[in-house]
C-alpha cells in the first residue's frame, strides 16, 4: 500500500509521510481512520512498545477528564528517557492534570519546569500555556499575588499578538476574575468577567456554564443578588445539561448563599440540601466543607444559633482536613458571629483573631478588611475602644 492509497481522500501523502517519520502525531480521529484502512485496531498503535503512541493515549485520558489516570501516565513517561520537547510536553500535561486534581504544589513544580523547557526551545505559545497551569497551581496553593502577576503578564502578551489557543484570552480573564474574587476584590473580578462576556458567546455548554458561574459569584459578592440568582440559575441548567454533577453542586451552593442573602431561607435550604447530597454521593469532602458553611449561614438566618455553631464547627473541621482555606476562614468567621451574638465575647474574640490570621495568610484583602471591621465592632461593644481603633486602622490600611 502506497502512502497515497493509505491517505485516501481525507488526508495527503505528505501527512502520512510525516506520521511515518515521527514529525507529526495523529489526532484520535486520524488514527482511527488510518488504522481502519490498514485493517488494524487503533490499540495496535497504542501499546507500551511505542512511547509516542502511549503519550497520545495519556493525552486522551486528560481530554476525557480522567485526570488521575493522566497524571499517573505522564509520571510514568517522565520516568523514562525523553528528549527535551517530549519532556516539556509531558510536564505540561502533568501540570494540567495535577491542577485539575487540586494538587496546587505539584502543578507548580511541573508547570514551572515545562515553561522553562519551552522557553529554551523557542516555543512561546507552549510556554504561555505551561505558565497558565503554573498560575493555576499558584492559585490553588493560596498564592494569589504571584498567580495574578503571572496571569496579567500572559494577558498582556496575548493582547500584544501572541497566538496560543482560540479561547486563551477568555481563559485568562476568567482566571484573573477567580483570583480577584478570592482576594476579596469583587468589583475587579466582575470587571474581568464583563470584559469576557462577548468572547463567551460561542463556548460549549460546559465552558459557558463555568463563565456564568464566575459571573454569578461576582454579582453576589458585589450585592447584585437579582443578577446573581438569574445568572447562577442559567449556569446550573447548563451544568446539568452537560452532566457535570459536582459543578452543579457548586453552583447550587452559591445560589443558596444568594437566596439566604435575599431573605428566601426556604429556597436557600432546598438548594443547600441538594448540593450537600450530591457532594456526599461524589465523596468530595472539600466541596462539602463549603456547603456545610453555607448551611451554617442558613441556620443562623433562620434564628437557629446553636445549629449554626455546630454546622460551622463541622465545616471548619472538614476544611482543615481537606486544605480548603476559603471554607475554613468562612466557617471560623460564622462561628465567631454566633459566639458574639450569643454573648460569649471572649470566645468570639479568639475566633475573630483566627479568621483574621487566615485572611492575612491567604492574602485576601477584601475579606481581611471585613473581618477586622467586625472584630473592631465586637471590641467597641465591650468597651475596648483602643483595641477597636487599632483594628479599624489596620482595616483602612489594608491594600
Your description of this structure?
By secondary structure, this protein is mostly helical. Among the domains are: 1-43, no CATH class; 47-161, Serine Threonine Protein Phosphatase 5, Tetratricopeptide repeat; 166-272, Tetratricopeptide repeat domain (Serine Threonine Protein Phosphatase 5, Tetratricopeptide repeat), CATH 1.25.40. Helices cover 78% and strands 0% of the residues. The protein has 21 helices and no strands. The protein is elongated, with a radius of gyration of 25 Å. Residues 48-53 have low confidence and may be disordered.
Secondary structure: elements and pairs:
Blueprint: H1 3-7, H2 13-21, H3 28-38, H4 51-63, H5 67-78, H6 84-100, H7 104-120, H8 124-140, H9 144-159, H10 168-182, H11 186-196, H12 205-221, H13 225-241, H14 245-262, H15 265-282, H16 285-301, H17 305-322, H18 325-341, H19 345-361, H20 365-381, H21 385-397
Helix pairs in contact: 4-5, 5-6, 6-7, 6-8, 7-8, 8-9, 9-10, 10-11, 10-12, 11-12, 12-13, 12-14, 13-14, 14-15, 14-16, 15-16, 16-17, 16-18, 17-18, 18-19, 19-20, 20-21
CATH architecture of the domain at 47-161: Alpha Horseshoe
How many helices? The count is 21
Report the structural category.
mainly alpha
What is the rounded distance between the termini? 69 Å
According to CATH, what is the topology of the domain at 47-161?
Serine Threonine Protein Phosphatase 5, Tetratricopeptide repeat
Oligomer: single chain
Query: Under the CATH scheme, which class of the domain at 47-161?
Result: Mainly Alpha
Q: How many strands, what sense, and barrel or not for the largest sheet?
A: none
The tally of strands reads 0
Can you write the helix and strand succession as a string?
HHHHHHHHHHHHHHHHHHHHH
Strand content: under 5%
Radius of gyration: 25 Å
Amino acid at each position: 500500500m502506497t502512502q497515497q492509497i493509505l491517505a485516501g481522500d481525507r488526508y495527503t501523502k505528505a501527512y502520512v509521510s510525516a506520521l511515518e517519520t515521527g514529525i507529526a502525531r495523529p489526532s484520535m480521529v486520524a488514527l482511527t481512520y488510518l488504522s481502519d484502512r490498514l485493517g488494524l485496531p487503533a490499540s495496535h498503535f497504542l501499546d507500551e512498545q511505542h512511547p509516542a503512541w502511549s503519550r497520545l493515549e495519556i493525552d486522551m485520558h486528560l481530554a476525557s477528564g480522567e485526570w488521575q489516570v493522566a497524571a499517573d501516565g505522564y509520571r510514568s513517561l517522565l520516568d523514562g528517557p525523553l528528549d527535551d520537547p517530549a519532556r516539556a510536553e509531558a510536564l505540561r500535561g502533568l501540570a494540567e492534570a495535577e491542577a485539575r486534581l487540586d494538587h496546587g504544589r505539584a502543578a507548580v513544580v511541573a508547570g514551572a519546569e515545562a515553561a522553562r523547557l519551552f522557553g529554551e526551545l523557542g516555543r512561546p505559545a507552549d510556554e504561555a500555556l505551561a505558565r497558565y497551569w503554573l498560575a493555576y497551581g499558584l492559585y490553588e496553593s493560596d498564592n494569589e499575588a504571584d498567580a495574578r502577576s503571572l496571569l496579567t503578564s500572559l494577558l498582556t502578551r496575548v493582547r500584544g499578538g501572541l497566538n496560543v489557543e482560540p479561547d486563551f484570552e477568555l481563559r485568562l480573564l476568567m482566571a484573573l476574575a477567580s483570583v480577584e474574587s478570592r482576594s476579596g476584590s469583587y468589583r475587579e473580578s466582575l470587571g474581568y468577567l464583563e470584559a469576557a462576556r462577548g468572547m463567551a458567546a460561542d463556548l460549549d455548554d460546559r465552558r459557558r456554564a463555568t463563565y456564568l458561574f464566575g459571573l454569578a459569584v461576582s454579582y453576589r459578592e458585589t450585592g447584585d443578588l437579582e443578577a446573581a440568582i438569574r445568572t447562577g440559575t442559567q449556569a446550573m441548567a447548563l451544568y446539568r445539561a452537560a452532566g457535570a454533577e459536582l459543578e452543579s453542586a457548586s453552583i447550587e451552593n452559591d445560589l443558596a448563599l444568594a437566596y439566604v442573602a435575599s431573605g428566601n431561607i426556604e429556597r436557600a435550604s432546598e438548594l443547600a440540601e441538594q448540593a450537600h447530597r450530591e457532594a456526599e454521593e461524589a465523596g468530595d469532602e472539600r466541596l462539602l466543607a463549603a456547603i456545610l458553611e453555607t448551611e451554617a449561614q442558613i441556620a443562623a438566618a433562620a434564628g437557629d444559633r446553636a445549629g449554626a455553631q455546630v454546622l460551622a464547627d463541622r465545616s471548619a473541621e472538614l476544611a482543615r482536613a481537606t486544605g480548603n482555606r476559603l471554607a475554613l476562614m468562612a466557617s471560623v468567621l460564622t462561628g465567631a458571629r454566633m459566639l458574639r451574638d450569643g454573648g460569649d465575647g471572649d470566645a468570639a474574640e479568639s475566633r475573630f483573631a483566627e479568621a483574621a490570621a487566615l485572611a492575612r495568610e491567604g492574602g485576601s484583602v477584601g475579606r481581611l478588611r471585613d473581618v477586622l471591621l467586625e472584630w473592631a465592632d465586637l471590641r467597641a461593644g465591650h468597651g475596648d475602644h483602643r483595641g477597636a481603633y487599632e483594628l479599624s486602622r489596620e482595616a483602612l490600611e489594608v491594600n
